[in-house]
Amino acid sequence: MVLAGAVVLLVALGLVVLMVVRPSAASPSGPAAGTGSARSAPAEDSADAGFARDMAIHHQQAVEMSFIVRDRTEDEDVRRLAYDIVNTQANQRGMMLGWLEMWGLPKSSAEPPMAWMGHTVEQTGDGSLMPGMATDAELDALRAAEGEEAEVLFLRLMTVHHRAGADMARAGAEAAGTDVIRNLAKGMVNGQQSEIGLMADMLQARGAKP
């Protein structure tokens, strides 16, 4: 997965540069929007910053799982879905990291995951950092699987991942103070709900349940 991680990092860095060059596209809403001043940026403990940090982590695992299944199956439909997830979520992750950079905020926080939502997640030590994320054991099982077994496992894991991601995105759309985060979060809800339906159909075609 070193290559996969490098690809995602390059995409993210490219988008960070784009956001820095075009700051007005990511400016917070409100009277101070577009001024470029620190006062116009969301606070470090804001819902905007928390959502961007947590969803960037959540997206990273979706990209990782998609790269894994791409190499474990020859099924064109699954590979196409995996490619779409990599393309979409790597781009979204790059935008969120770019906004944090532009706002002058750290890309990580000492706060527990999802604290911006008013509740925190207790770490279990199994690699699942937030709701919906696969455990280390589940990722190992996906790496070991092949063919239809890998397809079914991927579709099940990604369905759970998307459901939790959509829940987080709904919270982000409601709590964020910037248009860029609200709009991105709303788009995530729509996109992931659509893919959940697609994956349900793909599982049914394989005689498997979500």
How would you characterize this protein structure?
With 210 residues, this protein is mostly helical. It has six helices and no strands. The chain has helices at residues 2-21, 47-70, 76-103, 136-144, 147-175, 179-205. α4 runs antiparallel to α5 (147-175).
Taking all Cα atoms into account, the compactness measure Rg is 17 Å
Backbone structural class:
mainly alpha
Mean pLDDT: 86
Intertermini distance: 26 Å
Q: How is the biggest beta sheet arranged? A: none
What's the gist of this structure?
By secondary structure, this protein is mainly alpha-helical. The chain is built from 6 helices and no strands. The chain has helices at residues 2-21, 47-70, 76-103, 136-144, 147-175, 179-205.
